[in-house]
Design brief:
247 residues, single chain, Immunoglobulin-like
Amino acid sequence: MMNNRQCLVFALLLLATLGQASSARISADSVLTIKKTSDFEVNGAGTAPQWKTADWFELTVQKGPRQPEPGKQFDTRVKILYSDKGIYFLYNCADQKLTATITEDFGALFTEDVVEVFLWPDTDVPIYLEYEVSPLNYELPILVPNIKGRAQGWKPWHYNDTNKVRHATSVQGGEKKSMSAITGWMAEFFIPFALMNPIASKMPLPGTKWRGNFYRIDYDVPTTYYSWKQTNGSFHDYQKFGTLIFE
Protein backbone atom coordinates (compact mmCIF):
# COMPACT_ATOMS: atom_id res chain seq x y z
CA MET A 1 0.00 0.00 0.00
CA MET A 2 1.31 3.50 -0.92
CA ASN A 3 1.95 6.09 1.77
CA ASN A 4 0.79 9.72 1.47
CA ARG A 5 3.99 10.87 -0.22
CA GLN A 6 3.83 8.07 -2.79
CA CYS A 7 0.16 8.88 -3.49
CA LEU A 8 1.03 12.53 -4.08
CA VAL A 9 3.85 11.65 -6.48
CA PHE A 10 1.57 9.22 -8.35
CA ALA A 11 -1.16 11.86 -8.65
CA LEU A 12 1.27 14.44 -10.02
CA LEU A 13 2.62 11.96 -12.57
CA LEU A 14 -0.92 11.07 -13.65
CA LEU A 15 -1.85 14.74 -14.11
CA ALA A 16 1.28 15.33 -16.17
CA THR A 17 0.49 12.34 -18.37
CA LEU A 18 -3.10 13.49 -18.92
CA GLY A 19 -1.86 16.98 -19.74
CA GLN A 20 0.51 15.58 -22.37
CA ALA A 21 -2.27 13.47 -23.87
CA SER A 22 -4.57 16.50 -24.05
CA SER A 23 -1.85 18.53 -25.77
CA ALA A 24 -1.37 15.73 -28.29
CA ARG A 25 -5.08 15.71 -29.14
CA ILE A 26 -5.21 19.46 -29.82
CA SER A 27 -1.80 20.59 -31.04
CA ALA A 28 -0.95 24.24 -31.62
CA ASP A 29 -0.94 23.85 -35.40
CA SER A 30 -4.55 22.59 -35.28
CA VAL A 31 -5.80 25.90 -33.85
CA LEU A 32 -6.52 29.06 -35.83
CA THR A 33 -7.37 32.36 -34.13
CA ILE A 34 -9.73 34.63 -36.11
CA LYS A 35 -9.39 38.37 -35.54
CA LYS A 36 -12.33 40.81 -35.36
CA THR A 37 -12.83 43.45 -38.05
CA SER A 38 -15.20 46.16 -39.20
CA ASP A 39 -17.25 45.27 -42.27
CA PHE A 40 -15.93 46.03 -45.77
CA GLU A 41 -16.68 45.29 -49.41
CA VAL A 42 -15.04 42.35 -51.21
CA ASN A 43 -13.56 42.90 -54.67
CA GLY A 44 -11.77 39.62 -55.40
CA ALA A 45 -8.31 41.14 -55.01
CA GLY A 46 -8.07 41.48 -51.23
CA THR A 47 -7.19 45.18 -51.31
CA ALA A 48 -9.32 46.23 -48.31
CA PRO A 49 -7.00 47.66 -45.61
CA GLN A 50 -8.65 45.42 -42.99
CA TRP A 51 -6.81 42.43 -44.47
CA LYS A 52 -3.51 43.84 -43.20
CA THR A 53 -4.48 42.72 -39.68
CA ALA A 54 -4.84 39.05 -40.69
CA ASP A 55 -1.99 36.57 -41.19
CA TRP A 56 -1.72 34.17 -44.12
CA PHE A 57 -1.73 30.45 -43.45
CA GLU A 58 -0.92 27.77 -46.00
CA LEU A 59 -2.85 24.87 -47.49
CA THR A 60 -0.76 21.82 -48.36
CA VAL A 61 -1.32 18.93 -50.74
CA GLN A 62 -2.86 15.66 -49.64
CA LYS A 63 -4.13 12.55 -51.35
CA GLY A 64 -7.60 12.86 -52.82
CA PRO A 65 -10.27 10.15 -52.96
CA ARG A 66 -8.77 6.97 -54.46
CA GLN A 67 -5.62 8.90 -55.38
CA PRO A 68 -2.39 6.84 -55.04
CA GLU A 69 -0.08 9.87 -54.77
CA PRO A 70 -0.70 13.57 -54.10
CA GLY A 71 -0.38 16.05 -56.95
CA LYS A 72 2.03 18.93 -57.44
CA GLN A 73 2.12 21.70 -54.81
CA PHE A 74 1.36 25.27 -55.88
CA ASP A 75 1.50 28.07 -53.33
CA THR A 76 -1.95 28.32 -51.72
CA ARG A 77 -2.63 30.75 -48.88
CA VAL A 78 -5.69 31.85 -46.92
CA LYS A 79 -6.66 34.74 -44.63
CA ILE A 80 -9.74 34.96 -42.37
CA LEU A 81 -11.48 37.76 -40.43
CA TYR A 82 -14.87 38.03 -38.74
CA SER A 83 -17.27 40.87 -37.98
CA ASP A 84 -20.55 41.25 -36.13
CA LYS A 85 -22.33 39.97 -39.25
CA GLY A 86 -20.22 37.15 -40.64
CA ILE A 87 -16.83 35.78 -41.70
CA TYR A 88 -14.49 37.02 -44.45
CA PHE A 89 -12.19 34.72 -46.45
CA LEU A 90 -9.37 35.47 -48.88
CA TYR A 91 -7.69 32.73 -50.96
CA ASN A 92 -4.54 33.30 -53.03
CA CYS A 93 -3.82 30.38 -55.39
CA ALA A 94 -0.80 30.06 -57.68
CA ASP A 95 -1.80 28.19 -60.85
CA GLN A 96 -0.95 27.56 -64.50
CA LYS A 97 -4.31 26.94 -66.16
CA LEU A 98 -7.85 28.05 -65.37
CA THR A 99 -9.67 24.70 -65.48
CA ALA A 100 -13.20 26.09 -65.11
CA THR A 101 -16.11 25.77 -67.54
CA ILE A 102 -19.21 25.80 -65.28
CA THR A 103 -21.15 29.07 -65.65
CA GLU A 104 -23.93 28.64 -63.10
CA ASP A 105 -24.35 28.81 -59.35
CA PHE A 106 -25.13 25.58 -57.47
CA GLY A 107 -23.36 23.52 -60.12
CA ALA A 108 -20.90 20.70 -59.43
CA LEU A 109 -18.06 23.19 -58.92
CA PHE A 110 -15.90 20.60 -57.15
CA THR A 111 -15.35 18.85 -60.50
CA GLU A 112 -13.23 21.82 -61.65
CA ASP A 113 -10.82 24.32 -60.07
CA VAL A 114 -12.36 25.50 -56.81
CA VAL A 115 -11.71 26.64 -53.26
CA GLU A 116 -13.86 25.43 -50.37
CA VAL A 117 -14.65 26.29 -46.75
CA PHE A 118 -16.21 23.86 -44.26
CA LEU A 119 -17.54 25.36 -41.00
CA TRP A 120 -18.86 23.23 -38.12
CA PRO A 121 -20.10 25.51 -35.32
CA ASP A 122 -21.99 23.01 -33.17
CA THR A 123 -20.09 19.76 -32.68
CA ASP A 124 -23.08 18.22 -30.87
CA VAL A 125 -24.70 17.71 -34.28
CA PRO A 126 -22.99 16.33 -37.42
CA ILE A 127 -24.12 19.23 -39.64
CA TYR A 128 -21.77 21.81 -41.17
CA LEU A 129 -21.70 24.49 -43.85
CA GLU A 130 -19.84 23.82 -47.10
CA TYR A 131 -19.13 26.81 -49.32
CA GLU A 132 -17.39 26.65 -52.70
CA VAL A 133 -16.45 29.31 -55.23
CA SER A 134 -14.83 28.85 -58.64
CA PRO A 135 -12.28 31.11 -60.39
CA LEU A 136 -15.13 32.29 -62.65
CA ASN A 137 -16.97 33.45 -59.49
CA TYR A 138 -19.77 30.90 -59.39
CA GLU A 139 -20.78 29.58 -55.98
CA LEU A 140 -22.15 26.53 -54.18
CA PRO A 141 -23.43 27.09 -50.61
CA ILE A 142 -24.93 24.04 -48.88
CA LEU A 143 -25.60 22.67 -45.40
CA VAL A 144 -24.32 19.12 -45.05
CA PRO A 145 -25.75 16.57 -42.62
CA ASN A 146 -23.12 13.83 -42.27
CA ILE A 147 -24.60 10.69 -40.71
CA LYS A 148 -21.83 8.15 -40.09
CA GLY A 149 -20.05 9.10 -43.30
CA ARG A 150 -23.20 9.45 -45.40
CA ALA A 151 -23.09 13.14 -46.40
CA GLN A 152 -25.77 15.02 -48.36
CA GLY A 153 -25.76 18.71 -49.25
CA TRP A 154 -28.92 20.85 -48.96
CA LYS A 155 -29.35 24.22 -50.70
CA PRO A 156 -30.66 27.27 -48.80
CA TRP A 157 -34.46 27.48 -48.98
CA HIS A 158 -34.41 31.28 -48.87
CA TYR A 159 -31.29 32.90 -50.34
CA ASN A 160 -31.54 36.67 -50.60
CA ASP A 161 -30.01 39.92 -49.37
CA THR A 162 -30.45 38.92 -45.71
CA ASN A 163 -28.27 35.79 -45.89
CA LYS A 164 -26.55 35.74 -49.28
CA VAL A 165 -22.77 35.31 -49.57
CA ARG A 166 -20.87 38.23 -51.14
CA HIS A 167 -18.13 36.88 -53.39
CA ALA A 168 -15.67 38.01 -56.06
CA THR A 169 -12.63 36.58 -57.86
CA SER A 170 -9.66 37.86 -59.84
CA VAL A 171 -7.02 36.30 -62.10
CA GLN A 172 -3.32 37.09 -62.42
CA GLY A 173 -1.09 36.58 -65.46
CA GLY A 174 -3.87 35.85 -67.95
CA GLU A 175 -7.53 36.23 -68.83
CA LYS A 176 -10.45 35.30 -66.61
CA LYS A 177 -11.91 32.75 -68.99
CA SER A 178 -12.13 28.99 -69.29
CA MET A 179 -8.86 27.11 -69.85
CA SER A 180 -6.70 30.25 -70.14
CA ALA A 181 -3.03 30.22 -69.14
CA ILE A 182 -2.53 32.15 -65.88
CA THR A 183 -0.10 32.52 -62.98
CA GLY A 184 -2.71 32.55 -60.23
CA TRP A 185 -6.18 33.50 -59.03
CA MET A 186 -7.80 34.89 -55.91
CA ALA A 187 -11.20 34.41 -54.27
CA GLU A 188 -12.63 36.77 -51.66
CA PHE A 189 -15.98 36.18 -49.99
CA PHE A 190 -18.10 37.01 -46.96
CA ILE A 191 -20.35 34.37 -45.37
CA PRO A 192 -23.05 35.96 -43.17
CA PHE A 193 -23.91 34.18 -39.94
CA ALA A 194 -27.55 34.37 -41.04
CA LEU A 195 -26.85 31.82 -43.80
CA MET A 196 -25.83 29.26 -41.19
CA ASN A 197 -29.13 29.25 -39.33
CA PRO A 198 -29.99 27.09 -37.38
CA ILE A 199 -26.49 25.72 -36.61
CA ALA A 200 -25.20 29.29 -36.13
CA SER A 201 -27.14 32.49 -36.75
CA LYS A 202 -25.35 35.24 -34.83
CA MET A 203 -21.87 36.49 -34.05
CA PRO A 204 -19.82 34.14 -31.83
CA LEU A 205 -18.66 35.68 -28.56
CA PRO A 206 -14.90 36.18 -28.08
CA GLY A 207 -13.36 32.84 -27.11
CA THR A 208 -16.01 30.80 -28.95
CA LYS A 209 -14.62 27.68 -30.63
CA TRP A 210 -15.83 26.17 -33.89
CA ARG A 211 -14.37 23.34 -35.95
CA GLY A 212 -13.56 23.80 -39.62
CA ASN A 213 -11.34 23.10 -42.59
CA PHE A 214 -10.20 24.85 -45.76
CA TYR A 215 -9.59 23.25 -49.14
CA ARG A 216 -8.63 23.75 -52.74
CA ILE A 217 -8.85 21.45 -55.77
CA ASP A 218 -6.68 22.18 -58.81
CA TYR A 219 -7.40 20.20 -61.98
CA ASP A 220 -4.04 20.58 -63.68
CA VAL A 221 -2.53 17.17 -64.48
CA PRO A 222 -2.46 15.46 -62.06
CA THR A 223 -5.40 16.74 -60.03
CA THR A 224 -4.20 18.17 -56.73
CA TYR A 225 -6.14 18.33 -53.46
CA TYR A 226 -5.16 20.86 -50.81
CA SER A 227 -6.24 21.18 -47.18
CA TRP A 228 -5.45 23.05 -43.98
CA LYS A 229 -5.85 19.92 -41.82
CA GLN A 230 -5.14 16.67 -43.64
CA THR A 231 -8.03 14.22 -44.01
CA ASN A 232 -8.27 10.57 -44.99
CA GLY A 233 -9.01 11.45 -48.62
CA SER A 234 -12.53 12.83 -48.29
CA PHE A 235 -13.00 16.50 -47.48
CA HIS A 236 -16.04 15.37 -45.47
CA ASP A 237 -13.82 13.68 -42.88
CA TYR A 238 -15.10 16.20 -40.34
CA GLN A 239 -13.48 14.55 -37.32
CA LYS A 240 -10.14 15.75 -38.74
CA PHE A 241 -11.21 19.41 -38.86
CA GLY A 242 -9.10 21.93 -36.94
CA THR A 243 -10.27 24.32 -34.20
CA LEU A 244 -11.22 27.95 -34.93
CA ILE A 245 -11.14 30.43 -32.04
CA PHE A 246 -12.85 33.82 -32.36
CA GLU A 247 -10.64 36.48 -30.79
